[in-house]
Design goal:
- This protein has 384 residues and is mostly helical.
- Helices cover 77% and strands 0% of the residues.
- It has 18 helices and no strands.
- The longest helix is centred in the first third of the chain and has 61 residues.
- The termini are far apart.
Length: 384
């Protein structure tokens, strides 16, 4: 009997086993789903909290409230420890506080993960600038220019190159700045203000030909642009192209009567054109008048220059006579009658005037007024 009952129980268990296993499996699945759901809820909550603190930090960073931003980004990282963006924004806030060593630690770690990230390279370049590590700064600036950027990458790359150019100009690396400016100019949009800005930068790099070209491109897009007219006039003036400078500067002053620098430069330009005795289409009487006036001005410059007595004689006199002696010796001939009798004195007198102005400028400082004008004219005719 007992054996029969055991057999019956075994058969019953075997029949029920699949149902029991199914039930246990179902319970296991439900438990797994429950745990997974709770885990997802936890991680979602963590992510939401991290994002909330990050959003606050971002707002404070943009408002330059760096101390608050640092604390908020650090809190965000408690909820998302390995978040790349949170670490990058924290590094930016630390840079804002000039805590460069801390910022560098984050940035170099991010750079090792993504060496092609544009913003990371740009921030590393800025830190290198602060540390006066020129070659390191240049390397990261160039990385930033050719890096991957979110959004409008061309604008981001252009801004990175502009920042590099301004840095090069700040360390007086004008040749390198010129090369970067030429690369930048090739990809400018049809925006008059952009061409003016690049023209200004070319001017700072003392590349006046390219500066003038950029201002002219701006004027093709907006022919009444006061900044472009003033820039073109200034560049033409520095190139010694005074006729062209006069036209642009007159237009600049007409477009903006409050442009005092252009008005002053226009007066100087007009004086250069008026006082140049070698310009074309000028009467003999006018040429003689200019020579007499210039010769008198050079004599006054000698008197006002404390070191005038120590100036050396011109090469043409073998260096035997001082400029003061040469001037006094030639003075009786520099009259209307004397120049009519001997026209060769026009060139001789102006050569002496130019020599006096050059030497006095070196010995007694930059000239002003008519002396500055005569020095500009001398540079215009150097080698002629």
């Amino acid at each position: 009997m007992a054996a029969s009952e055991k057999e019956t129980g075994l058969r019953y268990y075997l029949k029920r086993e699949p149902l029991i296993l199914a039930a246990l499996s179902a319970l296991a699945v439900l438990a797994f789903l429950g745990v997974s759901g709770l885990s997802r809820m936890y991680h979602a909550q963590q992510a939401a909290l991290g994002n909330r603190w990050f959003t606050r930090g971002e707002a404070d960073l943009r408002a330059h409230r760096y101390e608050l931003a640092v604390n908020e980004f650090r809190t965000a990282l408690l909820y998302s420890r390995d978040n790349y963006t949170y670490q990058l924004e924290l590094a930016e806030a630390l840079v804002g506080l000039k805590r460069t060593n801390e910022a560098y630690a984050y940035l170099i770690n991010l750079w090792e993960q993504e060496p092609e990230n544009g913003l990371v390279n740009l921030e590393l370049a800025r830190i290198a600038v602060q540390r006066v590590e020129t070659e390191e700064a240049l390397r990261h600036y160039h990385n930033a220019i050719y890096a991957i950027w979110p959004g409008d990458h061309e604008v981001q790359r252009q801004n990175a190159r502009l920042e590099l150019i301004e840095y090069l100009l700040s360390i007086n690396a004008k040749t390198r700045a010129q090369a970067e400016l030429i690369a930048l100019a090739e990809n400018l949009a049809d925006d008059p203000s952009q061409h003016v800005r690049v023209g200004d930068l070319f001017g700072q790099a003392q590349d006046y030909e390219h500066a003038l070209a950029e201002y002219r491109l701006s004027l093709k897009l907006d022919r009444h642009n006061p900044a472009a007219l003033a820039g073109a006039g200034r560049a033409a003036f520095l190139l010694g192209r005074y006729d062209l400078a006069q036209r642009y500067l007159e237009a600049a002053v007409a477009a903006n009567p409050d442009d005092t620098p252009s008005a002053d430069l226009l007066k100087t330009t007009e004086l250069v054109l008026k006082m140049d005795p070698f310009r074309r289409r000028i009467s003999v009487a006018e040429r003689h008048r200019i020579v007499i006036e210039a010769f008198a001005a050079a004599g006054e410059r000698l008197k006002s220059c404390p070191a005038g007595a120590n100036l050396r004689g011109p090469v043409s006199s073998g260096g035997q006579e001082s400029p003061t002696e040469s001037w006094a010796k030639m003075k009786p001939e520099i009259t209307v009658q004397g120049l009519r009798r001997n026209p060769d004195f026009v060139e001789a007198a102006m050569n002496l005037v130019f020599d006096i102005e050059r030497q006095a400028s070196a010995a007694c400082g930059p000239p002003t007024g008519i002396d500055m004008v005569l020095l500009l004219i001398s540079k215009l005719h150097e080698g002629n």
